[in-house]
Amino acid sequence: MIPDKICLRGLALIALLGAAPLQAGSIDPAKPPQPERVQAVHEAEQDVDRAWEVYHRAALGGTVASPALQADIEEHLHKARSLITQAHEAAAQGDSRAVNRLVSQVKAHTSKAIEESKEQKK
After folding, report:
1. Which of 23, 24, 21 is nearest to 52 (CA)?
2. Residues 102-111: tens digit of each pLDDT
């Protein structure tokens, strides 16, 4: 079927783009980021990677409940990636409150994506 081929190619593209690691160096080299901030962002980044893996297994296995749910999951995952970039910038600037807020948002998006990825077709 043509929609299956399109979907499979789309998933392959998402896998390739989603697997690219994001890196942000320090904006102000005179003010190095604090290790705990960097660690929090790194852990959140690993959560996003795990969420993408759970989603990809479900999508490739054909167990995602619906196309609408698949789109919702992808939206959560893309938002989480975007927040990771912002968290890297906040860590580089030494902004602990922003890092904590952004990491919390990342965790909410990844948890929702994982939960929805585990929903089975009815």
Report:
1. 21
2. 999 999 999 9
